[in-house]
Structure formats: structure tokens, C-alpha cells
Amino acid sequence: MKLDNIQSFVPPVRTLMGPGPSDIHPRVLQAMGRPTIGHLDPAFVEMMDEVKVLLQYAFQTQNALTIPVSAPGSAGMETCFVNLVEPGDKVIICQNGVFGGRMKENVERCGGTAIMVEDEWGTAVDPNKLEAALQANSNAKIVAFVHAETSTGVQSDAKTLCELAHQYDCLSLVDTVTSLGGTPVKVDEWEIDAIYSGTQKCLSCTPGLSPVSFSDRAIDKIKGRKNRVQSWFLDLNLVMGYWGGETKRAYHHTAPINALYGLHEALVLLKEEGLENAWARHENNYQVFRAGIEAMGLSFKVKEGDRLPQLNAVNVPAGVNEAEVRSRLLTEYNLEIGAGLGSLAGQIWRIGLMGYASNLKNIWYCLNALKAVM
Amino acid sequence: MKLDNIQSFVPPVRTLMGPGPSDIHPRVLQAMGRPTIGHLDPAFVEMMDEVKVLLQYAFQTQNALTIPVSAPGSAGMETCFVNLVEPGDKVIICQNGVFGGRMKENVERCGGTAIMVEDEWGTAVDPNKLEAALQANSNAKIVAFVHAETSTGVQSDAKTLCELAHQYDCLSLVDTVTSLGGTPVKVDEWEIDAIYSGTQKCLSCTPGLSPVSFSDRAIDKIKGRKNRVQSWFLDLNLVMGYWGGETKRAYHHTAPINALYGLHEALVLLKEEGLENAWARHENNYQVFRAGIEAMGLSFKVKEGDRLPQLNAVNVPAGVNEAEVRSRLLTEYNLEIGAGLGSLAGQIWRIGLMGYASNLKNIWYCLNALKAVM
């Protein structure tokens, strides 16, 4: 590639129905392009306060420490682990897909010990297995699990898993990257202690930020640490000084101003629609999609009841080249759907109906395009 | 603050002449709002390759591992330290401002030992002091310093400092957050082993990404580590699989698509202008600014020769309320300039002429507005 030949990049216009990013609302894209202001500008500081209130609504929480981390969802995950795990801590991780494995990586890199509770990919986390692990590891400090597994389209019962964690004196740490804004996530009611999400799924926003929220119990653990948090960038003791509370903001890092404009607008859109209405829309559109998929003779990987309405793992029929179908959808129809990850590679497509992408126009387009290429 | 009252955020239009973010080029803002595509889309992957080539040009390097970290400059700093420092490693840090102190934090959080070489804030790093430290610490592994101190507007002699590091078998690790695109930064010629920068200074781009580059020597150290990198998100062994080289991209994290559109456009603009022309523009505009400041009877904190043309520490005259001046410039003139940090708080203003903000219109506006409020 020659430097001289590089021009401005004008992306193709795709329909995004993979596992994320999903279609971005036009108002969000417009917000991204607004004039940048300083990260300590009083107008920006006020916008940050609004983002916190809007995120509290999205997460259904009163937690004061409810902010977007200035980096993608993976950094949100890491924020939770590096702040809460100290060397030697035992963390029980319920794994039923790719992202539980990433949690294990995080725990180990913090010097903790990961106790893995495995469920088959494509099934929900089994609370009985978690309880057995809690009984066998009475000194465990944290229970971590993925509410909505992006790699399989499975939803687990977060409320029950958090209750179990607390019965055994553990903090609960929950991945809601794919659920927030698409299906119910109730931080206070479910007593989630640490939660992270992404912006590029059901919030209809561009990728790059990770909303997080921490309960008072979690903050007590962070403030009572014996060791410094190993990451300076993600150390909540420092980040709180910038995003936090009542006092004057202390400079920590330079916030990604325009990305935050986008998230603010996405959250205003969510508020305008209403959380319950957004959940209902995702559910209703899933029913339309399901009927269409089944009418084509296709089936779902995940059993009814555990399925996420916003992310569908569709079994690739025998004799069909899954990669070719995806490639043709992209090149001939500008339609992106996702491949399987890990042990499900080649076996499933992941078709997202997330956020702004969850609408009838997309669904009918996707069903017809699928028919056309198969 | 009531949820119900929160509306779309329409920022004021400011002139950004602080220490960053600086004014964003309109073409960059336009690029930020373009339609999002998938992070594994072939069109996006090609754009990533272009970003690498453009960054190699900006850094003046052939280093294959030249990429933007998906988070702000502080995360770029952390990327360099967590990948290069292992527990027990001695790192010599030349500190002459705020950001050397942040380097120390990083080293210690990696389990390393920081040997501090102190110079007065507002002066350049003294190579003689570095050499003495290298002689006294023959087992040091890395020499780290800030090329252009954002807190003081001082430029240090990166070439000489890197030469010294190599004479004593150390890797060189250099902060160029404020210099890249504004004054010469020559990674290959100066033999810099690890470098990070920001997008929101002389690149005229929004904040949120951190360009980094690593020499083969640095990569050898990373690949030969005894311990895993403590950050999963910033582990270059994994990031290389996504951004890297010849083979198929492996999913690591979801890239901040639209922020990368912005950086791509900013780098195309830099290429169109030409690096040498950009450096000359920053220098020429500084001369105009300097003449104007001196004509007002004001003086600079940093001695001529060590001064960064793109970031000027102007002494606050006796009897002038520095905070009130900044506040009036912002509210009455929509003009942002910066305060002093740390030990220089209250003593200086930091006035940036960075990237797109380095132009005569801004300079004459700033000089006249300063006159008006003082």
C-alpha cells in the first residue's frame, strides 16, 4: 500500500445485523460530528452529569458510580476485574461462551484464582452448578458471569445468580454488553455489584465506550484494597475524581469528547422511547424474525426461553457454506451478519436485532436476502 | 438533575487554544459522522491498513507495529509500560513535568522500580543527569521521558536521550503526545523503541485514541517476557493479532470505528499538507504569537530554544487573577486556554497553537481577547 494513494475514507453503507456494532441511529452519528469542546469545559462537565443520570436510568440503578469507561467493552470488563480482584482472591466464573473465558484471563492477570463453572455453549448458566461451586469454595470473593452471551445468544438468569452470590458473601460481577437496552437489566433490583456494558449493541451507538456501574459494596472493596489497582488508566479511585460526585473535577485522562456526545444522544433516544418500550420492541421484532426463520425451515441453536431476542444463533443447514453466505450477503446486499466463535465457528450465524437495527425493514430485508443467497 | 429534563446536547462553538483538545478540522468532524461498518468488514480492515501506513509516515518509521490504541493517550502510555516492564525491572524516568510522574505510577503498578531523574519544571531534560543515572544503575532496562511536556511547554532532546539509553543497553520509551505532527518526531532516525502519542493535539483530531509504535527490539522484549502482560485489553501479543501483519485478523476487541474514521481523515490531512510543512507552520505561527505576547509586555516561562512552538507557557503577570482571565475568555469569547498544572498552577497559562488551531485567525483573536480582559 502506497502512502501517496491514500484518500479520505468513505465507508460503504451497510445494514448491521451481526453481533455488533449494530446500526447506529442517525441522530447519534450527527452528534458525533458536533464541534469538540474542552474536557474540563463547564458545558462538557454538565453533559457528563447528564450522561451519568441517563446511564443510571438505562441500568435501573441509583449507584453514584455509574459512568462510561473511555474505551470499548473489553476495557469495561477489565475495569471491573482490576478494581475488584486482589492477588490471591478466588473468583468463581460461570462460563457458557467466549466471554467467560475472557473473564478468566482477566482474573489470572490480576493475580487471582479463577474457579470455572462450565455450561455447554448455547445453554444458560445453571444456578445449581454455581451453588455447588460456592459450597466447595467458601472463601470465594466474587461471582462473575455473562448475562447475555454475545457468542451464543443465550440469556442467563442474572437475578438468581446474584442472589446466590450474596447468600455466600460474594460480590456479583455481570457482563451486560449485549443486553443493556435490549432486554431487562435491573442493577438495583437484582443487586448487581459491578456491571459493564458496551455502546455498540442495543444502545444504537458507535463502539468505543463501556458503561459501568458499581454498588456501595463494590466501592467498599475498592477503597479497602491492600494493593494499588494495577492499571493507572482504569483505577476507579482516580477515575472517580474526574467523573465523580460533588467536588471539583480533577484531571485524570482526556475524555473522548465526541464519542461521549454520541453516547449522550443514544441515551436520550432510549429515554424518549422508554426502556420498557425498547424491551418490548426487541421482543416483538424477534417474534417476527423467528416466524420468518422457521418458515424457511431454519432452526435456532438456543432453546426457547434462554434465547436473547436481540441476538439469534441460527443453525447453518447441512450442505450450506456458511462463510459464502455471509460473504455474499455483505458484498451483494451490504448486509452484515456474524459468524460463530470458538467451538461454534462454522455451525451458526449470529443475527442481531439490536437497538436501532431491530426494525421490520431490517428483518424483512434479512429474511429475503438469506432466501436469495441460499 | 432530572432525567425528564435532559435533551440532546448541542455544544457551544469554542476556539480551542488550551493544551488539548485543540480545534478539530471540519473534515475530521465530518468523517466521525459517517455510517458505521463492522470492525471485521473488509472495507474497514483496508482502512486499518491505511491508518498504519499513515501513522508510519507521521512517526517517520518503518516499524510494522505502528497502530492506534483504542483509548486515549493515557492508555497509550500504559500500553508501553505494561508490555515492556516486568516485575523487578528498573526503569529510569526523566521527569520535568506532570507526565513523568504518571510514568512513575505506571512503572510501579507493573511491579518495576522507577529511578527518577529530576529536572526543574519548565526546563528540558538534562542529558548529563541521565548519563549519571545510567552509570549508577547498570542493570536498568528502560529509559523513559517526555519529548514535549504538555504541562510546561518544554521540548527535550529526544535524539540525544535515546542515544544515551542505547549506549547503556536500555530501551527508549518516549511520550510524544504533544509533539507528533507539530514538531519533528523521527522514530527510526532517533531510534525510539516505544512511543505513544495522542490524537487531540497537533493531529487536529478528537481525543480518544493513542497512536503507538514499537521497534523490533521492543517487540523482542515483549515476546520474550517471562510473565503475561498484566492487561488483557492492552496486551500487544493479542492486539497484534487484530491489527497485525499478513495473516487473517483475529478478533480481539471491538475497534472504535468512527473514532478511527476521524483519525484516518486527520492523517490524510497531515499527508496532504506534508509533515515538514506542518512543522514549519507551527514554527511560523509561534513566531507571530511570540511577537504579540512580548509586545503586550508578557513573558514566557520556558527559555527560548527549549520552547515548544505549539504549546506556550505564558507567565501570569503580577496582580492578574489567572483563573478569572481564563473564565472570561471562555464565557465572553468562547476561547479556551489552559491553566498551569501541579506546581505551576496559578503561575502560567498554557496557550496551544496545535494542529488546525495553529493559524493567524486564532492567534490574533487570542491576543486581542487577552488584551481585552486584562
From TrEMBL, chains A, B:
<dbReference type="GO" id="GO:0004760">
    <property type="term" value="F:L-serine-pyruvate transaminase activity"/>
</dbReference>
<protein>
    <submittedName>
        <fullName>Alanine--glyoxylate aminotransferase</fullName>
    </submittedName>
</protein>
<dbReference type="InterPro" id="IPR015421">
    <property type="entry name" value="PyrdxlP-dep_Trfase_major"/>
</dbReference>
<dbReference type="GO" id="GO:0008453">
    <property type="term" value="F:alanine-glyoxylate transaminase activity"/>
</dbReference>
<dbReference type="Pfam" id="PF00266">
    <property type="entry name" value="Aminotran_5"/>
</dbReference>
<comment type="similarity">
    <text>Belongs to the class-V pyridoxal-phosphate-dependent aminotransferase family.</text>
</comment>
<dbReference type="InterPro" id="IPR000192">
    <property type="entry name" value="Aminotrans_V_dom"/>
</dbReference>
<dbReference type="InterPro" id="IPR015424">
    <property type="entry name" value="PyrdxlP-dep_Trfase"/>
</dbReference>
<feature type="binding site">
    <location>
        <position position="350"/>
    </location>
    <ligand>
        <name>substrate</name>
    </ligand>
</feature>
<keyword id="KW-0663">Pyridoxal phosphate</keyword>
<keyword id="KW-0032">Aminotransferase</keyword>
<dbReference type="GO" id="GO:0019265">
    <property type="term" value="P:glycine biosynthetic process, by transamination of glyoxylate"/>
</dbReference>
<dbReference type="InterPro" id="IPR020578">
    <property type="entry name" value="Aminotrans_V_PyrdxlP_BS"/>
</dbReference>
<dbReference type="InterPro" id="IPR024169">
    <property type="entry name" value="SP_NH2Trfase/AEP_transaminase"/>
</dbReference>
<feature type="modified residue" description="N6-(pyridoxal phosphate)lysine">
    <location>
        <position position="201"/>
    </location>
</feature>
<feature type="domain" description="Aminotransferase class V">
    <location>
        <begin position="36"/>
        <end position="341"/>
    </location>
</feature>
<dbReference type="InterPro" id="IPR015422">
    <property type="entry name" value="PyrdxlP-dep_Trfase_small"/>
</dbReference>
<keyword id="KW-0808">Transferase</keyword>
